[in-house]
Write a structure and sequence with these properties.
The protein is an alpha+beta fold and 210 residues long. It has five helices and six strands; from the N terminus they run αβαβααββββα. The strands form two sheets. A four-stranded antiparallel sheet has the order 3-4-5-6, covered by helices on one side. The chain has a two-stranded antiparallel ribbon with strand order 1-2. A hairpin with an 8-residue loop joins strand 3 and strand 4. The radius of gyration is 19 Å and the shape is globular.
Length: 210
């Protein structure tokens, strides 16, 4: 229940404090949330139908905290888009390790740690599917976003519908679907651009089952 969930988070916070106090100061520590808050623990103003397991902000916009001697403004924040795949690339960069010839999805966050103005990614891509494993899937949702808009393509049992949302950093979630009616102006431009970028991204995907 909610009280148990709160107690778990408080215990995690306490143990992280002990860990940070014990490790050498030249250590880089990355803490990332996973898949958002469970429906049962979601509270107002968050929508429980847009929580863990969805591609809405409540399911993909998670805590991401870095403690590192590379951070030039401890306690500061970054506006740049960050993906969990960036952790692997960041660790490779910190270790001066060669990833080899295979393509890497992530981008190193080392420049972002020291420079709050570093722009980072232009787009973020995320997908969710059921069941696990290879296709065909009962549900296969795909999302792409930039700094202002998010486009989601929902596919359930072969039926597809779309959503476009304006992202407000001060709002609890995406708000209303902007594709209700005929999009015009900036909305139409964002719809066309993100739709094209999602199509391009999907064309480059290579799965283990291919």
């Amino acid at each position: 229940d909610r009280a148990q969930y709160d107690a778990m988070v408080e215990a995690l916070d306490t143990e992280l404090g002990r860990l940070l106090a014990a490790v050498p100061e030249d250590t880089t520590i990355i803490l990332a949330g996973d898949n958002g808050t469970p429906t049962e623990a979601t509270v107002d103003p968050w929508d429980p139908t847009r929580a863990k397991g969805t591609l809405y902000e409540g399911g993909v916009h998670v805590p991401f905290i870095v403690a590192s001697p590379l951070v030039t403004d401890p306690g500061g924040t970054r506006d740049a888009l960050v993906h969990l795949t960036d952790i692997f690339s960041t660790v490779l960069d910190l270790a001066n390790a060669d990833p080899g010839p295979q393509p890497i999805d992530g981008q190193s966050l080392v420049p972002l740690l020291s420079d709050p103005a570093h722009e980072g990614r232009t787009y973020l891509y995320t997908e969710g599917f059921v069941i696990n494993g290879g296709p065909p899937y009962d549900m296969h949702d795909r999302m792409i976003r930039d700094a202002q808009y998010k486009y989601i393509r929902f596919t359930t049992f072969g039926a597809t519908h779309e959503g476009l949302f304006a992202l407000d950093p001060d709002a609890a979630d995406e708000g209303e679907n902007l594709l209700v009616g005929t999009p015009e102006g900036d909305i139409a431009e964002a719809y066309a651009r993100l739709q094209a970028e999602l199509n391009r991204t999907e064309e480059t995907l290579t799965y283990a089952y291919d």
